[in-house]
DNA sequence: CTAGGATCCTGTCAGC
DNA sequence: TGCTGACAGGATCCTA
């Protein structure tokens, strides 16, 4: 579930509670969710590669955390913090059925919850993080890449729908289902357009759209995530506030008033304004 | 090599 | 009520 902006928000938010703090015990409740030996240690830094969060320890080891679809990190101490896939777990009694790993810190507990068990925590040598197969394959993030580079990559996937190409982390890193849809809407490009049919100007519009929607999310992420932990169970309002198409099927396009529709592209639910997002013919 | 579909897993919701 | 299938903010593996 979490895409780059959510993971960046988690990185910033969690730092406040676990940076320079020591966890003295780790409890693994689901073996599938943990790869490698059990470790303990003091957190010396939190980094991010695309959607992967890296927690470096003072022992020369690091934890690579990927939340995939339904992962969550929830801090319970004097204060509370929760981020990741929004659900009742943010305010639930923990640990519960979906708790996979428990980190016991001296002044609180960090829970890794993950309904579908697609996420994982992997122990790596800090010196080897960048050589990890997943990390190594990641492409640049939208801010590190220019339109020409992205255009050139599109030419290697001429026949794939542009949405599929945007979701491929080895082509451009950080977008997931929400931001792919939102970036394409911003650029006025239909998700089913073949990547090879786009001209450089359109590719640039997509890249700028991706930067814009993700930056907006990061800039507001803190407050958005904060609402998730309120005791009344209020959900984050990112989608209501910022999404122009995602999960707005049946509602009116903010640009032209046409009805937003939901279709299936690259095996994923895809939201599009059929009037102002065009498929290039060629 | 690319493109597309199945798959991992649990839970929820719509439709019968 | 109970069953069934579709689907889900991700990524990999398998096949053609």
Q: Care to describe what's here?
A:
- With 282 residues, the protein is α+β, with helices and mostly antiparallel strands.
- The chain has two domains: 4-136, MutM-like, N-terminal (N-terminal domain of MutM-like DNA repair proteins), CATH 3.20.190; 142-243, Helicase, Ruva Protein, domain 3 (Orthogonal Bundle), CATH 1.10.8.50.
- The protein has seven helices and twelve strands.
- The strands form two sheets. A ten-stranded mixed β-sheet has the order 2-10-5-4-3-1-8-9-6-7. Strands 11-12 form a two-stranded antiparallel sheet.
- A hairpin with a 2-residue loop joins β8 (99-105) and β9.
- It starts with a helix and ends in a 10-residue tail after the last strand.
- Residues 222-236 have low confidence and may be disordered.
- The chain binds a DNA duplex (16 and 16 nucleotides) through α5.
Q: What percentage of amino acids are in beta strands?
A: 25-35%
What's the CATH first level of the largest domain?
Alpha Beta
Portion in helices: 25-40%
The CATH topology of the largest domain is: N-terminal domain of MutM-like DNA repair proteins
Rg over CA atoms: 20 Å
N-C termini distance: 34 Å
Report the order of strands and helices. HEEEEEEEEEEHHHHHHEE
Main beta-sheet annotation: 10 strands, mixed
Number of helices: 7
Instruction: Give me the CATH architecture of the largest domain, please.
Output: Alpha-Beta Barrel
Query: How confident overall, as mean pLDDT?
Result: 92
- Segments where pLDDT lies below 50 for 5+ residues? 222-236
User: How many strands appear in the DSSP assignment?
Assistant: 12
CATH homologous superfamily title of the largest domain: MutM-like, N-terminal
* Biggest sheet: strand arrangement: 2-10-5-4-3-1-8-9-6-7
- Total number of domains: 2
| Envelope shape | globular
Structural class: alpha+beta
């Amino acid at each position: 579930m979490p895409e780059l902006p959510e993971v960046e928000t988690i990185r910033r938010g969690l730092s406040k509670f676990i940076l320079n703090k020591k966890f003295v015990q780790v409890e693994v409740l689901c073996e599938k969710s943990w790869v490698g030996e059990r470790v303990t240690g003091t957190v010396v830094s939190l980094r991010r590669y695309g959607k992967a969060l890296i927690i470096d320890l003072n022992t020369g080891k690091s934890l690579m955390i990927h939340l995939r679809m339904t992962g969550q990190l929830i801090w319970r101490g004097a204060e509370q913090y929760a981020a990741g896939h929004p659900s009742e777990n943010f305010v639930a009694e923990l640990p519960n059925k979906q708790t996979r790993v428990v980190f016991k810190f001296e002044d609180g507990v960090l829970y890794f919850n993950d309904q579908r068990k697609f996420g994982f925590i992997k122990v790596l040598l800090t010196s080897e993080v960048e050589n990890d197969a997943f990390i190594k394959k990641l492409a640049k993030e939208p801010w590190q890449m220019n339109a020409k580079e992205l255009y050139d990559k599109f030419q290697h996937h001429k026949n794939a729908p542009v949405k599929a190409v945007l979701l491929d982390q080895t082509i451009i890193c950080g977008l997931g289902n929400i931001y792919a849809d939102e970036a394409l809407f911003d650029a006025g490009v239909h998700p089913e357009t073949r990547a090879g049919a786009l001209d450089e100007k359109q590719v640039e519009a997509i890249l700028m759209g991706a930067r814009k929607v993700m930056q907006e999310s990061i800039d507001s992420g803190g407050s958005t995530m904060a609402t998730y932990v309120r005791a009344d169970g209020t959900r984050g309002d990112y989608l209501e506030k910022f999404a122009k198409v995602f999960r707005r099927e049946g509602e009116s396009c903010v640009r032209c008033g046409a009805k937003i529709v939901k279709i299936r592209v690259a095996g994923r639910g895809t939201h599009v304004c059929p009037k102002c997002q065009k498929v290039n013919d060629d």
